[in-house]
């Protein structure tokens, strides 16, 4: 992670450590059924996103929903 943060701070643009950490991404292996993959792929195409972008979007929305639900 520290290496990624240093890379993000290079290149003329200085970022705060907080902002660099926010931009750093973790990779995770994900196994899904072929049918679920096809559904996500179609949904991503409909929304003009990559499959990875669609999965990240959906996970982000689920986390936001859960946080909102926990506050109630």
Automatic annotation (TrEMBL):
One of its GO terms (biological process) is regulation of DNA-templated transcription. InterPro entries: Arc_rbn_hlx_hlx (IPR013321), Ribbon_hlx_hlx (IPR010985). Residues 1-24 are annotated as: Disordered. Residues 1-12 have a biased composition (Basic residues). This is CopG-like ribbon-helix-helix domain-containing protein.
């Amino acid at each position: 992670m520290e290496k990624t943060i240093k890379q993000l701070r290079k290149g003329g643009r200085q970022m705060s450590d907080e902002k660099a950490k926010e931009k750093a991404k973790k990779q995770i292996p994900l196994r899904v059924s072929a049918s679920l993959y096809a559904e996500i792929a179609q949904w991503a195409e409909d929304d003009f996103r990559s499959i990875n972008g669609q999965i990240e979007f959906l996970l982000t929305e689920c986390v936001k929903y859960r946080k909102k639900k926990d506050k109630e």
